[in-house]
Amino acid sequence: xxEPLKTVVTVIAVDEGSRLDCCDEDTAHVWVRVTVWSPRRxxxxxxxxxxxxxGEEAAALVGLRFFADLDLDDPPSNTDTDGERLxxxxxxxxxxxxxxxxxxxxxxxx
Length: 110
Fold this sequence. Notes:
This protein is α+β, with helices and mostly antiparallel strands and about 110 residues long. It has one domain. About 10% of the residues lie in helices and about 25% in strands. It has a 5-stranded antiparallel beta sheet with strand order 3-2-1-4-5, with helices on one face. The longest helix has 7 residues, at about 50-55.
């Protein structure tokens, strides 16, 4: 196992009212993308840690970015088809991107 690195996790969708399995108490789940694990794969996981880290309701999580301390050399396997029971150590909301970075002002890269 390699040293965990602070990595961006993006919430791309919310799935409310379903359970991953019979023992799952969380009825809100999120689909997240961890680009360093796979730029195309989304992972289904419980919304509770993301709700706690952001202070937002599950429905408002779409589009938010978080930091988590993840082992980049050990992504989840592709064999789990019923959802992912992933853990998100060090989960915290990413700070907003400054408006001037998004504006593409003078002297910026084009």
